[in-house]
Task: structure prediction
Amino acid sequence: MDPFVVLVLCLSFVLLFSLWRQSSGRRKLPPGPTPLPIIGNILQIDVKDICKSFSNFSKVYGPVFTVYFGMNPVVVLHGYETVKEALIDNAEEFSGRGILPISERITNGLALVTGVRKMENRALKTAQSSPCDPTFILSCAPCNVICSVVFQKRFDYKDENFLTLMKRFTVNFRILTSPWIQVCNNFPLLIDCFPGTHNKLLKNVALTKSYIREKVKEHQATLDVNNPRDFIDCFLIKMEQEKDNQQSEFTIENLVGTVADLFVAGTETTSTTLRYGLLLLLKHPEVTAKVQEEIDHVIGRHRSPCMQDRSHMPYTDAVVHEIQRYIDLVPTGVPHAVTTDIKFRNYLIPKGTIIMTLLTSVLHDDKEFPNPKIFDPGHFLDENGNFKKSDYFMPFSAGNRISFPFAFEGKRELFGISWNLHGTPSGAGRISSSWKVKFI
Result:
């Protein structure tokens, strides 16, 4: 048979299959813009401003609607009430992890998204009063804090291994946020069959994991089960305790993947938030002055801050919350998936369907936050100047798959590990001897 005829037949089959799949799936899902065969709604979405496109769709189709990325349907949730009903009221059913092909290649099925809250107290001291670009330092500082937690070691900012890690993270973030990666996620066949920046991304991830494996081997050789030094030691101890459990998730691959994801998710989110925060404080000197006044009053100039100070600093707390609300760092959150067939708002959403939450619609809700496009710490203060919590504050999603700030204090649960971390870093990014990790 003529090759051209074969090609036409194959394309026709793919086209018909795409039409059948989309038409059968759309009968069950919430309404949305009519997708084109194979490419879905990609031409109707502004890839540079997805949130604006989704907001426009919500005006036509309501707070729950469906868009197609390629041939894959994605149910989008718009507005606080809708997001709350899904992620909080039906937390278990919406707790699945949305699978993206590139993410699957990177994590091998493991994923967690975090930030870093504690920062090194000496990061900007060397700049003194001279003008400086804090981008590099603000990227290094959270990365170094993660190093101190997982490796029990902080690096000098001129250390070659550290600089190599930082370079990879910067390059990977730039690639991950590029339109090409969105194309690869929609058409995964491209990942294996075509050249592109995704190959650089996957190579960088492999090199980073290789470095982490070397560190794990070093830890194994010097492990003292009675004196765990860091996260890797604690994980290895738990591995030994569960060595006879065939279903245990405490494996070397899980350890390497978790540590890698801590770096990927914690470094860029924190440094970006800090950079935007500094820009906002420069733009609003009246806010900066009030923060400085509160810092001087509560902390003074002769000691470092601690978590106990937070309850006595309502204005500073409000400023931190307003920075995260205003910059809207993760506008669509991390993708979820429904874990079972569920009837939601009179629509039937099949098991495994990807769910995307438009967090912008929550953080910029004008009923909760008057003038949401204006930077105003008053959004989180009551009439008496006390800090005011808001259920609409969802900078990193909500519910069972919320992306939480990684902290040295308080209790968090991470892959079945209950973290009870006490105290603050002693010195520049080093962990005090009082920190503990409890596995459950």
Observations:
- The chain has 14 helices and twelve strands.
- The domain at 3-421 is CATH 1.10.630.10 (Cytochrome p450).
